Amino acid sequence: MTEAAQQGAYQGRFAGTEVALEPNHHSRTQQRSQGLPQSAGGRFVGKVEKGGNIGVMQDRDSKGDYAALARDIKSRGREIGFAAVGIARAEVGAAGKRLREWLAAGCHGTMDYMARHADLRCDPAALVPGTVTVISAALDYLPDAADPLATLADPERAYVSRYALGRDYHKTVRQRLQRLATAIGDIVGPYGYRVFSDSAPVMEVEFADRSGVGRRGKHTLLLSRQGSWRFLGDILTDLPLPPDPPVADHCGRCTACLDACPTAAITAPYRVDARRCISYLTIELQGSIPEPLRPLIGNRIYGCDDCQLCCPWNRFARLGDPDFAPRSGLDTASLVELFAWTASDFARRLEGSPIRRIGYPRWLRNLAVALGNGPATLEARTALTSRRHHPDPLVREHVAWALAQMANKSTEP
Q1: Would you state the pLDDT for residue 236?
Q2: Residue 11 has pLDDT above 80, yes or no
Q3: Residue 198 annotated in active site
Q4: Confidence at residue 48, expressed as pLDDT on a 0 to 100 scale
Q5: What is the mean pLDDT of residues 74-98?
Q6: What is the mean pLDDT of residues 214-237?
Q7: Of 28, 35, 241, 334, which has the fewest Cβ atoms less than 10 A away?
């Protein structure tokens, strides 16, 4: 959603939320308000490790000094491992109006935090007082994993969104951003900043778009000439750095992502209705998945990548950081195998994974739907029957639905 909710998330990597309102994770994505900083005496207060004095750099009047600093920041960013680093003014422009229209239409579903922190999302200086610049960074994440199209084509296998196969991206991106912020401090001395990795109401895709890191694609994720398999993060700072120009649009007349979306969640170019997005349904939604949408989910048990898999630009994508390599065999596992996990298995095998955040009952909910969409094999029926009396009503409901689907298939000629 993830910017996702996807990205993100999804970046979350739920793409639906960020996308629609800021035409990201990823989707990816998830943007939650966590420990927002407060202002005190003209200083950044929060995760500020190199001072926090607002205006420290103001003594450097030379535009050339700031231009040189901007070049140094991008160079250091590449050394740290970011695929791209760009600089934008801390202004969201028309994206704020689009966000409020998207929220008014109810496209955020049950993600109340999107509406609750809309004002902060539209004003970085309200989120972190003193902010005048946003440094946007992108990190490649495409894992060296089993063929995603082959997995989607096999209804007995489980499909997990590529961003969630390995380590939780929040930790990796945040650590890299902190290294970059520290490197800047080594150059300029104490300054005001705070780093964010899909952890607060920040329009990550909007700033990546404005800073030339890429352009918002019609699927609402950030798209570059190296594709869209990238996590985004930001440094909000008081340094008046020169902004980078945006790059040219990459989508043209292509509508591949709109055509490929299994649930028609991309309702128009640059607009996603999260309520229909599989990333939202399998990650953000805490309750029952609407029955009309269950068959469309197929074997996708956590997130969805269809709008990225079909994108022509992703032919040029590069493999991502080793941190995001598949763990626990998630790229090759069968639905029955994962459905057999106990609660302790879930906690142990998904330690350090973004999947763990949905909890065990929703994990079983998603798997039950996928099993119900698959072939009525004895193995699948046995697995579902073993959970018919699960203590959680959410699990029982979706298991009952899946068994009914199996029964219907068994009676078909």
Answers
A1: 98
A2: no
A3: yes
A4: 39
A5: 97
A6: 97
A7: 35
Bridge-based pairing of strands 159-160 and 230-237 is unpaired
**For residue 252, what are its two tokens?**
């043209």
Helix (H) or strand (E) holding 94: none
The Cα–Cα gap between 313 and 332 comes to 25
- What whole-number distance in Å separates Cα of residue 213 and Cα of residue 3? 14
Strand order in the sheet with 84-89: 84-89, 133-140, 230-237, 193-196
Q: How far is CA 377 from the centre of its chain?
A: 34
State how far the Cα of 373 lies from the Cα of 256, in Å rounded to an integer: 25
**Please, are residues 372 and 294 in contact by the beta-carbon 8 Å criterion?**
yes
| pLDDT of 126 strictly over 50 | yes
Inter-residue contact 303 to 13 (CB < 8 Å): yes
**pLDDT score of 64:** 66
Instruction: Evaluate if residue 15 carries a pLDDT over 80.
Output: no
Contact 43, 25 (CB under 8 A): no
224 DSSP 8-state letter: B
Spatial contact of 34 and 288, defined as CB atoms under 8 Å apart: no
pLDDT tens digits, one per residue of 347-368: 999 999 999 999 999 999 999 9
Distance set, CA 301 to CA 87, 330, 331 (Å):
36, 11, 12
Give me 224's structure tokens.
């570059």
- The tokens for 145 are 């994993």
Pairing of strands 159-160, 215-216: unpaired
Name the active-site residue from 140, 168, 198, 306: 198
Cβ-based neighbour number of residue 264 at 10 Å: 12
Q: What is the pLDDT of residue 31?
A: 31
Mean pLDDT of the chain: 87
Residues 6+ apart with CB under 8 A from 196: 174, 177, 202, 204, 233, 234, 235, 236
Residue 116 CA, distance from chain mean position? 19
Q: Which structure tokens are listed for 328?
A: 């626990």
β-pair type (300-302, 159-160): parallel
User: Which pairing describes strands 193-196 and 230-237: parallel, antiparallel, or unpaired?
Assistant: antiparallel
CA distance 62 to 104: 45
383, 388, 389, 395 alpha-carbon torsion, rounded to 10°: 90
